[in-house]
Amino acid sequence: MNEVLAIIFYNLAIIFVLLLGLGLFIKYQHKKRADALLENMKKAHSAFSVDRKSQAIFEKRVKEWERKHPVHAIKQRIKKRIEWLLP
């Protein structure tokens, strides 16, 4: 009976380690994707920040994005307001 419990424990430990590794991998992939998106947004912003007409178009697109993604927009606003608290 003890041997069976030991086998079950080791199998659960292996599964836990695999799930932890998978979680870290997914988190890393998400970070990479977010960084790539940020880089693309910076390139787009530099293209739009040249003159007033382009700036107006950029602001319109930002508002459209905020309308389509309200939860993310709220998170961004909160982060901007408490940015000085974060290291």
TrEMBL record:
<keyword id="KW-0687">Ribonucleoprotein</keyword>
<feature type="transmembrane region" description="Helical">
    <location>
        <begin position="6"/>
        <end position="26"/>
    </location>
</feature>
<keyword id="KW-0472">Membrane</keyword>
<keyword id="KW-1133">Transmembrane helix</keyword>
<keyword id="KW-0560">Oxidoreductase</keyword>
<keyword id="KW-0812">Transmembrane</keyword>
<protein>
    <submittedName>
        <fullName>50S ribosomal protein L22</fullName>
        <ecNumber>1.1.1.86</ecNumber>
    </submittedName>
</protein>
<dbReference type="GO" id="GO:0004455">
    <property type="term" value="F:ketol-acid reductoisomerase activity"/>
</dbReference>
<dbReference type="GO" id="GO:0005840">
    <property type="term" value="C:ribosome"/>
</dbReference>
<keyword id="KW-0689">Ribosomal protein</keyword>
